[in-house]
Amino acid sequence: MGHDHAHGTGSNRRRLSIAIGIVAAVLLLEVIGAWLTGSLALLADAGHMLSDLLGLIVALTATMVAARPATDRATFGFQRAEVFGALINGLILIVVAGVVSVAAITRLISPSDTEVLGTPMLVVAVIGLVANLAAMVLLRPAAAGSINMRGAYLEVLGDALGSVAVIVASIIILTTGFAQADALASLVIAGMIVPRAYVLLRDVVRVFGQSTPADTDVSEIRRHLLGTAGVVAVHDVHVWAMTSGAHVFTAHIVVEPAVLAAGTDALLDELSGCLAVHFDVAHSTFQLEPAEHAEHEDHQHR
User: N or C: fewer beta carbons within 10 Å in the chain?
Assistant: First the structure.
């Protein structure tokens, strides 16, 4: 069924606001913990948290902009703001991964004399994990329907995994005294960031490139439309997304002469209803035409 974007946007704003509070508190805790324990892994995770905090703020701003109504200058509205937010999030993640990797490799090559305190490091990481899990539960319901919210969810998921890496490193330090586990955990955190950034940026490129949404089968749409009484052929089909969950569809529909003579309101309602129900298309536009019109159009039909 079609999404209620106004309701969804308001709900997303509330979720993001709470998540921002959680992430900000954990970030402060990890910065203090890194300073007290000498842990690069905690500092790396704090850097990751900082990027996520900025990303969540960007995501919140994007949802507010996306809720603005359409204008004569922005006829589709501002839903693409969510995609720009996801783009910024992805770029932030790439930068953080690079900085963390350089710091970790430097420490592995030239070990620091700073002692890493395993016990407080473990305590801070456990608190961070619990907080991140709470934020994940909060954001998960909205992640499936919005590329912007999915970016926010993936960032918090990465934070949770980062906390797990720090917990493992602190346990190794406490049980074996192997301090380099801290730098290795930092590399693990950086390694977890990159795939998430790739997935997010890939989705952004798909939207900006106006590619057919991954969950949409154009041939299946054609079959549905051709099964409608009075429809003879379907061509010039285009499907893209303004943002996740806001699919747009246009097509030329060749119809029987009797349909045009009797009136097209019922057919248009049936066609748009079919797309909304079966393919979650939020906005559809059809050009109804007789067969002779389709035959003399200049461009090549598909």
Answer: N
